[in-house]
Design a protein that fits this description.
Rubrerythrin, domain 2, two-stranded antiparallel ribbon, 1 helix, 35% helix, binds zinc ion
């Protein structure tokens, strides 16, 4: 079942890789903790911490 994705802008569901309405990239409707954005956030926080300790 699902390769279903949703557009973050339209909140429209599609099976394609991009939104049929606005052409934006679509995302998984239930973005869990594996979201690249979250991982990047963690990484940035870690970097910040290291920098602070190093100073
Ligand atoms: Zn859209």
């Amino acid at each position: 079942m699902s390769n279903i994705k949703t557009c973050p802008d339209c909140r429209d569901y599609t099976l394609k890789d991009e939104c049929q309405k606005c052409g934006a990239g679509v995302v998984s409707p239930h973005p869990p903790r594996f979201s690249p954005e979250d991982r990047y956030g963690k990484y940035r926080r870690k970097l910040k911490k290291i920098t602070k300790e190093g100073a």
